[in-house]
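ugh ok fine here u go
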Amino acid sequence: MSPAILLISPVLPELDRQLAERYTVHRLYQHPDRDGYLREHGHGIAGVVTGGALGISTAMMEQLPALKIVTINGIGTDAVDLAYARRRGIHVTTTPDVLTADVADLAIGLAIATLRGLCTGDRYVRGGDWGRKPLALANKFSGKRVGIVGLGRVGKAIARRAAAFDCPVSYIDRREHTDLPYQYVSDLLQLARGSEVLVLAASADDGKAIVDAAMLDALGPKGVLINIARGKLVDEDALVQALQQGRIAGAGLDVFVDEPHVPEALWTMENVVLQPHRASATEETRRDMGQIILDNLAAYFAGERPPTSVTA
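structure:
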């Protein structure tokens, strides 16, 4: 009998089809009584496929005594207790590299859309206001001072793209990258003060909000916040207040604290661009991510180390 796999959330049809060809697939998202379903079927489940933001709770892993591999359709591991997984000998795998370009592209896209008012202009035309009402001037992106929080794969890709727009780039990271031509800053508030566009590209492993009222005040009334990392990095109440009070100029957001719920106050703000956590949501990248999931599962069940395991 083929190994049993648990899908916590839906995947692309092609990936779903290939999983079903190779494994016994349990689609947890189709069952309202998830605890009851796991009590009935959880004992035999050896692998899990989940998303980066959703992850898998420790309580759910405890309901899966045969679990040996958790494959994350993304690069974030903050929604999985890695220490617990290591104690149990559970591989946790991600899909690195293939989504880097898409996420970096969206970060720059959000910055341009926010500063240039692209969504406002779109609504202006669609609403029939062109030629009837004036439209305020926007702001340029080229040449803006860009600060990046987290200079990993995605952060570096954002920096390269920003530099192509003649933007001076500074960053904060766990260490200084002396081989790169960007300015290292050791203090978050200092980074925000020196930035006109502040981009969050850091992991959220400790679950703490690093962008609070003080950070937003340091960014200032001409500054724009871009978040393509994790919603929990931002104190959303503080962000809403800063936007309402004009203490920052705008925000471009792909991620939120309690997805899919977005603070309603943001819905009507013309200086805010919102996306439904879709930085990696292109056909090409999602296909490549799916292949990495299949490769990791195939390797484990063949008795090999999954190629992108982060726990062993």
